[in-house]
Structures
1.
Amino acid sequence: MQCHFRFALFPAGKCLQTGWKGEKRGMEPIPSPSAEAPRRRSWTWGALSVAAAAVASSLVACRSLGKDALEEHLTALPKNQSAATHGLLRTTLHTAWDGENQEFELVYLHRPAQNPDPRRAPVVLVHGTPGTLFTWAPLLFPDGAGPRLDDDRDVYAIEIIGHGIAPGDAAPYTFDRCAQFLVAALETLQLEPAHVIGNSYGGEFVWRAAVLAPERFASLVLMHPSGYERKDDQWLPEEEAMRDNPLAKIGWRLNSLKRVKKALDPHFAETPPDRAEEMFLVLENAHNWKAMVDLARDENGTWSHRLPEIQAPTLLLWGEREFAYPIEDFGQRFHADLPQSTLQEMPATGHYPQEEHPDRLRELLIERFHSLESGS
């Protein structure tokens, strides 16, 4: 996952649409049984009733931020101004889940090649969870002069169902469904083959899609992907809460910018401007929050035995400061299981290379793709 969130019954929260703000409050412990149990039980249940009524009242005031409103807020962030000016595209996507045909709207950003070269395969960027295609804005829209990904090839950033501003409800959200959605997106955009890049959970979406439709992939770039079963001591406490807490799926009602920033900060030497607000906004939408919880519960390594099927050249890119999926536990294992893989570490980099060091990553990717296409 990209970041992790703690759950409590009464955490601080803010509702974007209503302006309601909650304060941290705790419940008194239920007294142990004693001779005075009947009288104390009456007091306890009375307190519980009052607390429940207060929570119910505040939760009713909190409403999920709709996707249209979410798009307005995300495109208004200064970090996303170039992407907003460039504009997003939409088309209809068809896929089949559980034997039934499904129709969704595909939202994506397309940077056409400035000087098209038929030798250059397109690039497709796939965000993680909870994420949005806007995570790629620093990579796609550099501030200064220098080489660009779209100098000689088309570049696409795709919004995966259950994330960002992608409309529609595909619950329960699973890695399999997200991978099938990605395959359908590649088919809809007629991208064959393409260099496909995935970050975190997006990395697992990508490598699973490569198992399902290998003909669509010229190469893979996986940055800290998930994909293996984790041991009990490898789960962070907040991840365990998402997997086990029965109230986790309503956590969006108590979403707060302060808590999101606290979760993000360890992944950066310095969290970029607007980054915490972007993720906070994404998680104000109930579908996005539920997708995050669903996918945390679906992270189980059941497809890891299929990794050796992937024959496309694969770059495994690991930040030196990555701690969610340590290189010694996960990077080395991916490298051993993927027959055409290269494992490379990025110095002084955390979980989000595309945001922390976009210029360095851009140069690395351009060199990588040109090398593959020249046969060297």
2.
Amino acid sequence: MPSIKNRMLLYLLAALLLTGTSMQQAQAQPRETVKRILKTDNFMVLIDSSSSMDESYMGSQKLGLAKDFVSRMNQTLPDIKINSAMRKFGAEKCIFDSTSSLLGLAPYAKKTYEDALQTVKEAGGFSPMAVGINASTDDLKAAQGKMAMIIVSDWDETGFINNPVAAAEAMKRQYGDRICIYPVMVGKDLDGMKLMEKIATVGQCGFATQAEKIASQQDMSQFIDKVFFTNTVIPDSDNDGVNDSLDKCPGTPAGVSVNSDGCPLDSDKDGVYDYLDKCPGTPTDVRVDKDGCPIQKIIKLNVEFDTAKFDVKDKYREEIKVAADYMQKNPQTNVVIEGHTDNVGSEESNAKLSESRANSVKEYLITKLGVSKDRLKSVGYGSKKPVASNDTVEGKQKNRRVQAVITAIVKK
């Protein structure tokens, strides 16, 4: 039976294994980024300028409070690409259906919006909110995408001569889930609160509130955030720090450094990502293989000689010329010309003979084919490096040779 000490060690090992597994699972989970995005493409403000808006609330005129609310909203809105419109209802005595457009649907601009708002000078007349909502429905006909309808009123007697709920229902039927309605109350009329809650319910995706609850800059920012923006989760499936929607190289292996497009870095611009590149720092004008290493072209020269001879036979001159032409086309190349012998003769005589053979090919390249002597080196190895058995005539013939390997990097 295991001792207490051994059992504790076993428990500790098990705990470490479980912890490691949990950490690996946690690391494997894809990242997600929460991004704040615009959820509406158009907004319209319908402002009440009827006679009840001339009344005082909390020491100020209701119309002044309504205009202040809209103005603060306008000033707090960030610079966003959105269309806007504005309309008022009321302010015309003895006219039951008074409503007028203050700003037609157009790209939003702070100053233009503020100028339109300041044309509302006085409050008066009846409260034909339904007429204003119906007219707003027409104002938005040209709108594309989502819409936010903000109605600012004291909601007092608005249902006395019209039915704003029915008008809101008609607007909702026409635009469906493209439109959300946001009633805002200036005042504290209990019946009016019930009415604006009904209209908010008709809108389904909006909400009702009171202007006095949006008194501070922070409150206004929160109101704008709820009306105009939403948070969306953007996944990063390969955990490279670039969201999937922007990732041009999905599935990048873990731990690989990427650029802003989510693609692995290729520092030497050779077309092979750094994490796969076995030859970093390759010049930009050099062709590379799949490992990022320079592609090399190799020319092999092999000239054989008769026994004890070192003169170059005519049949090898074309092969030597091919090597010379290649060197001329690739001026960065140098070559070592190696001379060899079979095993006939002494080591000393074979060393000299092999040097003579290498020098013969070297001189031919210089004098006959114009290769610079500075690019050529000759060396004799005697019989030390046979390529075949010296026990046969054929083998000896192969060993009486000059060899050279010319390697050049292939350019693009």
